[in-house]
Write a structure and sequence with these properties.
The protein is mostly helical. The chain contains 5 helices and no strands. Helix 1 runs antiparallel to helix 2.
Amino acid sequence: MKNENVVKFGHINTIEGYSYLALVFIAMPMKYLLDIPLAVKVVGMIHGILFILFCLLLVKAWHEAKWSFKENTLFFIASLIPFGTFFTKAKIKTYE
């Protein structure tokens, strides 16, 4: 039986990772190099909503899968580093 919250967390982990990359490597250069600040407002808002969902699902998955505090902290810290969420993807799959 699959852990429903872990599966949801795996999906939001990937989506949030892509939104972070879009913010850092697309929207921010558009703001500072092309003087289009609206890009950061839009992509930043989307990323912010996805990050909140990421945090909520992280807590739910943590309790459902009974992860250790160390693993939970690893998933959170990886979300703060560009490309970090993609390195935790395989680890999350083991808990599904």
